[in-house]
Specification:
InterPro entries: Bact_CCA-adding_enz_type3_sf, CCA-adding_enz_C, NT_sf, PolA_pol_head_dom, PolyA_RNA-bd. The protein has 395 residues and is an alpha+beta fold. The protein has four domains: 138 residues, Beta Polymerase, domain 2 (2-Layer Sandwich); 86 residues, Orthogonal Bundle (Hydrophobic Seed Protein); 97 residues; 59 residues, Serum Albumin, Chain A, Domain 1, CATH 1.10.246. It contains 19 helices and eleven strands. The strands form three sheets. A seven-stranded mixed beta sheet has the order 3-4-5-2-1-8-9. A two-stranded antiparallel sheet has the order 6-7. A hairpin with a 2-residue loop joins strand 4 and strand 5. Helix 6 crosses helix 8, helix 7 runs antiparallel to helix 10 and helix 13 runs antiparallel to helix 14. Bound molecules: adenosine-5'-triphosphate and magnesium ion (MG). Magnesium ion (MG) binds next to loops. Adenosine-5'-triphosphate binds next to helix 7.
Length: 395
């Protein structure tokens, strides 16, 4: 990731040449110190958005009123934000106002945890007024300032503490932890989307078990949709790491069969894409449970979800006796279109019948039979098979 930092340095140099200050800040500095892979690079600057827009040709004004613009530099994006503090958190949601401030130290003081409140200049100078580096070295999560105040300002920080602890395998300072215990009721005020974002990050972390344990011990999960009504759900602990919402919903549905997918989607405000995935995984799991239909289960599941099916079953503690990918690859057909008997040819087999919904049913029966190996995917065999099937079905 050296090149990315080199590009960020070029951005910072341009700002400095204009007379401004610039530092990389937040998660990327933390990850750099940890020698983790760095995703995005955020830059803090003394310049106001209007000035940043003058410095660079390609700028996307994503949140000018909050001081943020995206600078495009050699096909990379950098979030450049004016030094600011946030005040007047009303209803525990978004700050009523942000104020631009003149020093990086002030900007760092509004940040959530000391490990996230470190700045680094283009030449490598570090500004670390809250001893974030020491916290990182000791793998500790602690707030900038009093936990009580900072969590009252923005209760999401409690969720972030739990999430970071799972992601980084850091421990939360005892006093911060006890404030979470005390103040968790404030999570009531947050939008479900913000909680959802942290919850899924926590559950898909490598140290998700640590995260899960903390959700349980603090009782924070009482403020989550679904879990609120079914607190026993938290006892369902994935045996291996899940990697997305689709897998997570399927896991809980199969572990404790009284949660349905639609309820997850509505109450956590998730997308239709996630709903579709969870439904596919659950359907495939039921077919798999019926044992003799493993081929058909993989066929129905489709190529995109094979890997998730493996993740799901291992989270349920099941050792598969087959490889989903191999099984899928060895299927005689992968879609209805691959059948050797086409729709028009099927109609020729039953010339007395009009077009209708029987066609879909017959194609479906042929698919299942070919996939399960009771009929080969050859035209004349399919014709014989479908005639016989028709006889049996009419009686
Ligand atoms: P990651 O991107 O890996 O989730 P991150 O630390 O970059 O971790 P972001 O949500 O991208 O987290 O936020 C960037 C920085 O902004 C944080 O490092 C922190 O300094 C600050 N920050 C983000 N959310 C909050 C918050 N709710 N309260 C205070 N500071 C915050
Ligand atoms: Mg980030």
């Amino acid at each position: 990731h050296m090149p990315l930092f080199q590009l960020a340095r070029e951005v910072m140099e341009r700002i400095e040449a204009y007379g401004g200050e610039a530092y990389i800040v937040g998660g990327c500095v933390r990850d750099l110190i940890l020698q983790h892979e760095v995703g995005d690079i955020d830059i803090a600057t003394s310049l106001v958005p209007e000035e940043v827009m003058e410095v660079f040709d390609k700028v996307i004004p994503v949140g000018v009123e909050h001081g943020t613009v995206i600078v495009r530099h050699r096909s990379h994006s950098f979030e450049v934000t004016t030094y600011r503090i946030e005040e007047d958190y009303r209803n525990y949601r978004h700050p009523e106002r942000v104020y631009f401030v003149s020093s990086i130290e002030k900007d760092l003081s509004r940040r959530d945890f000391t490990m996230n409140a470190i700045a680094m200049s283009g030449s490598g100078d570090i500004i670390d007024p809250f001893n974030g580096r020491e916290a990182i070295r000791e793998k500790r999560i602690t707030t900038v300032g009093k936990a009580e105040d900072r969590f009252e300002e923005d209760p999401l920080r409690m969720m972030r503490a739990l999430r970071f602890s799972a992601q980084l395998n850091f421990s939360i300072d005892e006093e911060v932890y006890s404030v979470i215990n005390e103040k968790k009721g404030l999570l009531e005020h947050l939008s479900v989307e913000r909680i959802a974002e942290e919850f899924i990050k926590l559950m898909t972390s490598y140290s998700y078990l640590e995260g899960w344990r903390n959700l349980k011990l603090t009782g924070v999960y009482h403020y989550f949709p679904i879990f609120r009504n079914r607190p026993f759900l938290i006892d369902a602990r994935p045996a291996t790491r899940l990697t997305d919402w689709g897998e997570l919903i399927s896991f809980y549905h199969l572990q404790a069969r009284d949660t349905d997918v639609k309820e997850w989607i509505t109450s956590w405000k998730l997308s239709n894409r996630i709903r579709k995935k969870a439904e596919k995984l659950i359907e495939a799991f039921h077919l798999f449970e019926e044992n003799e239909t493993i081929n058909y289960a993989m066929y129905q599941l489709g190529e995109d979800y094979l890997h998730s099916f493996r993740n799901l079953t291992s989270s349920l503690g099941i050792d598969l006796s087959f490889d989903p990918r191999d099984t899928y690859d060895n299927l005689p057909v992968h879609a209805r279109n691959d059948l050797a008997l086409k729709t028009s040819e099927l109609m020729d087999v039953f010339p007395e019948r009009k077009k209708g919904k029987w066609i879909g049913e017959y194609l479906h029966a042929m698919e299942e039979s070919v996939v399960q190996g009771t009929c080969r995917n050859q035209k004349h065999e399919l014709i014989e098979w479908v005639k016989e099937w028709d006889q049996q079905n009419r009686n």
